[in-house]
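Notebook entry, structure prediction.
Reason for the run: the old model in the group folder had no record of what sequence produced it. Starting over properly, with the input documented here first.
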Amino acid sequence: MASLQAERFNERIGGLEAKVIYQGEVIRLLLMKEYGAKSEHLSDAQLALLELEPGVKPEEVAAEAELPVEVREATPSPVKDEAKRTPIRKPLPANLPREERIIPCKASDCHCKQCGGEKQVIGYETSERLSRKPIVYYVELTKREKRACGRCEAGDKGTGDKGTGQ
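New structure, fully documented this time:
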């Protein structure tokens, strides 16, 4: 009778060990799904569809799937990098009222460093920003003076930002 109980006990322990191993595998798969590589994986049905395509061979698909993530991501994309970096903003609607604010140059930037003459205003750097007063939206137009010396041709242009012209 003792050997029968020991046998049942061993069977029960073996079943529990199998459950623990199974649950550990489920946890591992869930962790891989949550924190693993985020690349797309092809199912068997998708691979079967690819076999019907004349230009795609299963070996090519398998070879590409085996590439490291760094190599797959390093392939050049058809979209230019420059186009990604430059944000394209739509202009603010023309029907919004605008309040113009002119910011004058510093007094030290109003005179030419070579001849000492007063620089003339040659234009403005303009930026628009959507602002609002309580219940009123308007466009705040900011203009910063840009000056240049009219007497000497080699006079430094700009607002005195150390030759940047801004």
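Summary: The chain has three domains: 1-36, 38-75, 98-149.
The old model has been moved to the deprecated folder.
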